[in-house]
Amino acid sequence: MHCDIYSQLGGSGKCHHYIKGGFCKLDNQFRCIEFINRKGVDLTHSSIRDYLRCPFLFYLNNIVGVRIKSKSTRMLMGEIMAECLHTMHLGKQITQWDWLHNKYNISDDDDTELELTKLGCMVSHYWSSGMYQFDDEVLPEENWSYFWSDDNEVYKIHGRVDARLPNKHWLLECKYTTKPENYTLFTLHDQLGTYLLGFPETQKLISRIIRVPGLRLGKNETMVDYQQRLLKDISRRPAFYFNDYSYFPSEINTTELRSRITLITHQIRHLISQDNFYQNRESCFSPYKCDMYHICSTGVVSNKVYEYRQAKEE
Ligand code: SF4
Ligand code: SF4
């Protein structure tokens, strides 16, 4: 896979669309193909997850930089909860919710309102019960990266951890989910393992699993009454909604993980050299509808449905 613009330069010289760090200024291209050809790919836990689900999804999401404009409620609530947790871990209470509508372009439909009410109740309990506090210094949302080399090739993985307690060497990973039972050490192993690569001094990894309330809105119940009922339920049985699980580095095999990431990096480089990010159509609706389905099924990137990520110059 090569960039036509770069080929027109005769394969030499500096492309004036290039942005330091391997990015491209063009409106419909996020990462520079020629940079990837020379230096390889930077991976994250979620880009690896994309790749394992479908190579074409990895290509669209992580190289071209296509994003769906209207996110699913599930994805939206996950992002909003992450932002709320980040704010509270900084010691700031969330009292106003107006910013949400502007920032996340939230629709006014009943389902979204219900999900936001649920989220608001969980956030309120998180704050009032003091779960946002730790008995030591906490650094919320920290970026990390990890490099290694083998056979003259450099590999890189980077990411962001939800919170870190630097004095205790603890890491915190939070999940807001309808299926808490899906988050076991087995399923979280790779994500926690990447954090261990980024923070090798870690002594404990905590996964904080927050359950999306399943309580239904009563037939004639107002949203205010529902909110009160839910808040009562959360305070009556907090362990049903919030759970911390602690893991130790010895439970995670980072050697095996690193060699797997090395292998995946090679596979991606091979697909680039073959210009063949094939589609895995078995994954279009599994485990949920893929954001790229409209593109794959029509062959068109509609600007009503999608937008492109823009790389920024420092
Ligand atoms: S920066 Fe963009 S236009 Fe320039 S070589 Fe890279 S992909 Fe091509
Ligand atoms: S819609 Fe299907 S084929 Fe297309 S990127 Fe998603 S999983 Fe792959």
What is the H/E order?
A: HEEHEHHEHHHEEEHEHHEHHE
| Gyration radius, rounded | 22 Å
CATH topology type of the largest domain? Lambda Exonuclease, Chain A
Low-confidence stretches: none
Helix content: 40-55%
Query: So what's the overall shape?
Result: globular
Average pLDDT metric: 92
Number of helices: 12
Ligand names: iron/sulfur cluster
Biggest β-sheet, characterized? 6 strands, mixed
Topology of helices and strands:
Blueprint: H1 4-8, E1 18-19, E2 23-24, H2 33-39, E3 42-43, H3 45-53, H4 55-64, E4 66-68, H5 73-89, H6 98-104, H7 110-128, E5 139-150, E6 153-165, E7 170-177, H8 185-198, E8 204-211, H9 223-236, H10 238-241, E9 242-247, H11 254-274, H12 293-298, E10 306-308
Parallel strand pairs: 3-6, 7-8
Antiparallel strand pairs: 1-2, 4-10, 5-6, 6-7, 8-9
The structure holds iron/sulfur cluster (2 copies).
